[in-house]
Design brief:
Chain lengths: ~350, ~350
């Protein structure tokens, strides 16, 4: 008993210390990219304004109830084998209190919660509202700007200070779109259109990720929302509406060879490059170089990462639907040279 | 006073009436309303029937100083017990009659059921006869009822009820089907809960309840079968175009579609290398893509869907093997589809 008991209690203490450490670490860093308690837009602020008072109320209730439970357990415990604790039955005042008080608390919380739920679920419309269609794929996000002829992946651009009406679709399984500093999470369900509203107050990059387990690389299904001024956003949208330019075979023979490989090795059968390929399975690569990341925002977009990716995608991102295409190093160099031209 | 069972059945009557009215206003469809009315009538009838035979749940209160009951001589003439086979026979006859009007399958089912009911009824009468001894009883039970009769009866009843419910669900509208399924599930759940909550329940009450449930279910099923299935929405699309890749070659040299219409292409790859079907305007690196189907290794098949491009002449190729190619013709919408091979249209881009 003694040895095993001591070891167990020692391990328990260790676990407690580690847990407390993790909790404190979570509180400390103000630069957490996916901090739910750091609202940066009116929608997330609205949620924050609800969850903080409710959290405080819940905390007070928790402390009160636990105190009463512990007090009662200690005060009215059986003190010896001979005497039984005092047996009581019924206390109208206490029963009334612990029925009415929670009812009142729940009613108050309920009024504000229901109000917020309805407000947040309203789909805004009008000329000031930007519409974006978000499609979840295993394991990356597709963003379409209807009317603008722009489709991009993983990095969503929005103008600052404008409501963005997001229409959520799924191509395969259930995902959940979650940019915590801008809004709550909304599930993305196949054969169903869900709506959410996001809005950023100031320019910046807001991070998020899929919040519903969706398969092997669920954890690698990240997203970024790039909020920029209206002028910057308009420029981005205009440049992304252009088709891609085909590299000149004489000026840039390596990129031209890469373009030929892009079709011959089947890249075109999955990816769209506007004006050159019309695949519909993978992300649109027309303006790949305007993005900072690729593969579900899993990797920074640079030559080293692209090379590793093209050698064997499933080895880099578990379950990746992009197969190992068995490319030679020369082919990879040519393809990267071509991808470099997709600006 | 009515027993708890009849009160429950009256409640079910009220619910079914409400549903019939609500359904009538909401969906405005006769068959669904008829089914709910049927359930209401069945429940009300059963409620009245069980109410008449009600046995008080509690024993009558006897004051402690009451005199002991007096002994009375009674005659011990045997009373024949009730039987559920009469109800079953009634169901069978209903099925036979309805089947005669609707379909021979239903009539055959009725005939089988009638045979079972008659057999059971006669067997019940046999039990009252002096030559029915415990030995005969155990032999019949061990050799006929337990190994054959019981499983057959259970499966038959389950099939009958499942079939009836399926008819109901197919008859009423989609929302109606959800409501019916919900009501049926609630009734089954409620009835089982009620039976489980009674420590001692007269077997005749149980049989009556089961018979009423089965009768209303099967009756509603017949009503559903008579009303026929609701209209189902069928996806209608273009006849799919079938393309096969085998030994690094397509099996067709020309594909014809109508401009603006959706194209459904079933592509089968019989090789163990990657193939796909891609449609381009023009040839070579400058060719503008219309559609690139996803590439895959065989043997496998995929269905490609895309919108047909504006009228004109295009090329279809395998992106992986440029020598695999053919002509892709998009006809103007106005042009009627000519016989294969007769497509002669002005050149596109």
């Amino acid at each position: 008993m003694s040895d095993a008991g001591r070891w167990t209690s020692g391990r328990r203490r260790l676990v407690l210390v580690a847990a407390a450490g993790m909790l404190l670490a979570a509180c400390g860093d103000e630069e957490l990219p996916q901090n739910t308690f750091d609202p940066q837009g009116p929608v997330s602020r609205q949620l924050d304004d609800l969850i903080k008072p409710v959290g405080i109320i819940a905390g007070v209730v928790f402390v009160l109830v636990m105190t009463l439970v512990i007090y009662s357990a200690v005060r009215f415990r059986r003190r010896s084998e001979d005497e039984a604790p005092v047996q009581v039955h019924g206390n109208a005042k206490a029963e009334l209190a612990w029925t009415v008080a929670p009812a009142v608390v729940l009613a108050v919380v309920g009024v504000f919660t229901v109000g917020t739920v309805f407000e947040i679920n309203e789909v805004p419309a009008g000329p000031d509202v930007l519409e974006v269609t978000v499609t979840g794929h295993q394991w990356w996000w597709e963003y379409e700007y209807p009317g603008a002829g722009v489709t991009t992946a993983n990095e969503m651009h929005i103008p600052v200070g404008r409501k963005v009406a997001v229409k959520l679709l799924s191509d395969d399984v259930v995902h959940s779109f979650w940019p915590p500093k801008l809004a709550g999470k909304v599930d993305v369900i196949p054969n169903r259109v869900n709506n959410m509203v996001i809005e950023a107050e100031k320019p910046g990059i807001y991070y998020g990720q899929c919040a519903e387990f969706c398969g092997l690389s669920h954890a690698n299904m990240k997203l970024r929302v790039v909020a920029q001024s209206q002028a910057d956003f308009d420029a981005w949208l205009a440049s992304n509406a252009r088709p891609a330019r085909l590299p000149d075979a004489e000026l840039d023979p390596e990129a031209a060879a890469g373009a030929a490989l892009f079709r011959a090795r089947g890249c075109a059968s999955c990816h769209t490059v506007k004006g050159y390929a019309a695949g519909t399975v993978g992300p649109d690569l027309t303006h790949l170089q305007q993005r900072e990341t690729f593969a579900g925002s899993m990797f920074d977009l640079d030559e080293k990462n692209l090379r590793r990716w093209l050698r064997d995608p499933p080895a880099e991102k578990p379950g990746s639907l992009m197969p190992d295409l068995d490319l030679s190093e020369d082919d990879i160099s040519s393809l990267i040279a071509y991808l470099d031209t997709l600006e | 006073m009515f027993s708890l069972a009849s009160k429950l059945l009256f409640a079910l009557t009220a619910v079914a009436v409400a549903l019939a009215i609500g359904y009538g206003f909401d969906v405005d469809e006769r068959a669904g309303v008829a089914i709910f009315v049927f359930v209401a009538v069945a429940a009300a009838t059963a409620g009245v029937a069980l109410g008449g035979a009600a046995v008080p749940d509690l024993a009558p209160e006897v004051p402690p100083d009451a005199p002991p009951p007096q002994w009375q001589a009674t005659s011990l003439a045997p009373t024949p017990p009730g039987t559920g086979f009469t109800l079953l026979a009634a169901v069978a006859v209903t099925l036979l009659a309805a089947g005669a009007a609707v379909s021979w399958e239903l009539a055959a089912g009725g005939a089988v059921l009638l045979t079972v009911a008659t057999g059971g009824w006669l067997a019940g009468v046999w039990r009252l006869h002096p030559n029915w001894t415990p030995r005969v009883q155990s032999r019949v039970s061990m050799r006929l009822l337990v190994p054959v009769g019981l499983p057959l009866a259970t499966v038959g009843l389950a099939l009958l009820i499942a079939g009836s419910v399926s008819r109901i669900l197919l008859t009423v509208s989609k929302n109606g089907a959800v409501m019916v399924a919900f009501v049926v599930a609630s009734v089954i759940f409620g009835a089982c809960a009620w039976v489980a909550s009674r420590p001692r329940l007269a077997s005749s009450a149980l049989v009556a309840l089961g018979a009423v449930a089965a009768t209303s279910m099967i009756g509603a099923g017949i009503a559903g079968a008579v009303a026929g299935e609701r209209e189902f929405h069928h996806e209608e699309g273009e006849e799919p175009i079938v393309v096969v890749a085998e030994e690094v070659a397509f099996d067709v040299s020309e594909i014809t579609v109508t401009a603006g219409e959706p194209v459904v292409m079933e592509f089968e790859n019989r090789d163990d290398v990657f193939h796909n079907v891609a449609v381009y305007a023009g040839e070579g690196p400058e060719a503008k893509p219309v559609f690139n189907g996803v590439g895959f290794a065989g043997e496998d098949e995929r269905t490609y869907t895309f919108d047909a491009p504006p009228a004109g002449r295009y090329t279809f190729v395998c992106d992986f093997h440029v020598n695999m190619k053919g002509t892709f013709v998009s006809l103007p919408e106005s042009a009627a589809k000519p016989p294969a091979g007769a497509a002669e249209e002005p050149h596109g881009e």
